[in-house]
Design brief:
This protein is an alpha/beta fold and about 350 residues long. The protein is built from 14 helices and eleven strands. The chain is elongated and about 125 Å long.
C-alpha cells in the first residue's frame, strides 16, 4: 500500500525583526572608524595643546575613532573658532575653546565675533578653570608690586590677542594697581610671550597657573601674584593680589569680575547643528574621561589640573555671563579691552 501522505509543513515561526538601535547606540556606531579633528586655537606646547593631547588617546579609546589634533593659532582664537563653527555639523570637528575670550568678545559685540553666536555651539565639557598668574622677567627692573606702582616709565606686558587670558589678566592687574602700563598684542602663543619676558623685551606677562608653573622653571622669569581672589593648587606658594595690596571695594570688584569671566575656562565644543544624539554621546564620553581617577591623576602629575563641569553647565554659565547689564558691559569693555592695550 502507498505510504500515508506527509503532514503539511508547520507554519514558519514568527521571526522578530531586529531591534531598532537607540539614539545612543546609533551615535556610538557612527564614530567607529571615523576621524575626529580636535582643534586647538593656540600653538603647540601651551596649556590648550597639552590638554587636547592628554585627552586624545582616551577619546580614541572611548569612541573608536582616530583623533587628530590640529593647531590653528591666530586671530585671537577666531581662526580656530570660525573653522569649527562653520564645519560640517556631524560631530567630527571639536575644539578646546578659549570660552572666556569668546564669551567676553560676544558680550561687547567685538567685530571678531561677528557671525558667531557661541550659545549655538554645542558645549561638551569644561576641562579646566584656573586663575591667571602674572610674572615678571629677571631682566626687568621691576621685582615687586611696589616696584610696579612706583615705576617711572611705562611698564610693558605682552599678550596673544585682545580678549585673551593674558591680556585681560594684565589689564585688570594694571587697573587694580593703578599702573602706567601697556599691553602689547600680537604674540602667536603664550610661550612666545613668556620668551619675550625672559629676553627682557617686555617686563612681564600673565597666563594660567598651570602654564605659569612651567614657565617659572626657567631662571629668567618668576611669578609675582595670582590676579584672583584665590590661589591655585599648582602655584599655592604664590600670593594673590589681595594678599600683597589692601584692596578697596572697587579694586576687589575688578578681581571678582575677572574671576567670573575666567570661569568659562578651557571648554570643549562642537559645531552648531550637530545631531543631538552625537552631542550627548560626546558629552557622556568626556564625562567618563574627565572623571576617571587615573586620568585626573595623570593630569595632576604633569600639573595640568582638571576642573570639570558638564556641557550643559557650561551652556548655562555662558548664558548668565552674557546676560549682564549694559552698564556693566561698557565698564568691562573699557578697562579689560581698551584702556591698556596697544
Amino acid at each position: 500500500p502507498a505510504p500515508p501522505p506527509a503532514p503539511p509543513p508547520a507554519p514558519p515561526e514568527d521571526v522578530a525583526p531586529p531591534p531598532t538601535p537607540t539614539p545612543e547606540e546609533e551615535a556610538a556606531a557612527f564614530y567607529q572608524g571615523k576621524t575626529i579633528t580636535f582643534v586647538v586655537p593656540y600653538t603647540p606646547g601651551g596649556g590648550y595643546d597639552t590638554y587636547a593631547r592628554l585627552i586624545t588617546p582616551h577619546l580614541e579609546e572611548e569612541t573608536g575613532a582616530t583623533v587628530v589634533v590640529r593647531n590653528m593659532p591666530g586671530g585671537a582664537t577666531y581662526i580656530a573658532l570660525n573653522h569649527v563653527y562653520r564645519a560640517e555639523p556631524d560631530g567630527l570637528t571639536i575644539i578646546i575653546a578659549d570660552a572666556k575670550t569668546a564669551t567676553l568678545n560676544q558680550m561687547i559685540d567685538d567685530p571678531k565675533a561677528e557671525g558667531i553666536d557661541i550659545l549655538t555651539l554645542n558645549w561638551l565639557a569644561r576641562v579646566a578653570d584656573e586663575p591667571g598668574v602674572t610674572s615678571l622677567g629677571t631682566k626687568s627692573p621691576f621685582k615687586t608690586v611696589d616696584d610696579l606702582i612706583a615705576a617711572e616709565r611705562t611698564i610693558k606686558f605682552g599678550a596673544t590677542g585682545l580678549g585673551s587670558r593674558e591680556q585681560i589678566t594684565e589689564s585688570v592687574l594694571c587697573e587694580v594697581l593703578g599702573l602706567d602700563a601697556e599691553v602689547i598684542l600680537g604674540f602667536p602663543g603664550s610661550s612666545d610671550v613668556a620668551l619675550a619676558t625672559m629676553r627682557g623685551e617686555i617686563d612681564g606677562h600673565a597666563c594660567s597657573a598651570s602654564s605659569m608653573n612651567e614657565y617659572v622653571k626657567q631662571p629668567e622669569l618668576f611669578a609675582l601674584c595670582h590676579v584672583s581672589e584665590a590661589r591655585s593648587s599648582v602655584l599655592s606658594e604664590v600670593p594673590t593680589i589681595g594678599e600683597l595690596v589692601t584692596l578697596t571695594p572697587e579694586q576687589l570688584l575688578w578681581v571678582q569680575r575677572l574671576d567670573s569671566i575666567m570661569g568659562a575656562g578651557r571648554s570643549i565644543a562642537t559645531t552648531p547643528g550637530t545631531p543631538a544624539n552625537r552631542v550627548q554621546f560626546l558629552r557622556t564620553v568626556l564625562d567618563k574621561i574627565l572623571n576617571d581617577e587615573e586620568f585626573v591623576a595623570k593630569a595632576e602629575k604633569i600639573e595640568r589640573p582638571i576642573d570639570y563641569i558638564t556641557g550643559e553647565e557650561v551652556q548655562r554659565y555662558i548664558t548668565e555671563l552674557l546676560g549682564v547689564s549694559e552698564e556693566e558691559i561698557q565698564a568691562i569693555k573699557y578697562v579689560m579691552l581698551e584702556k591698556y592695550t596697544k
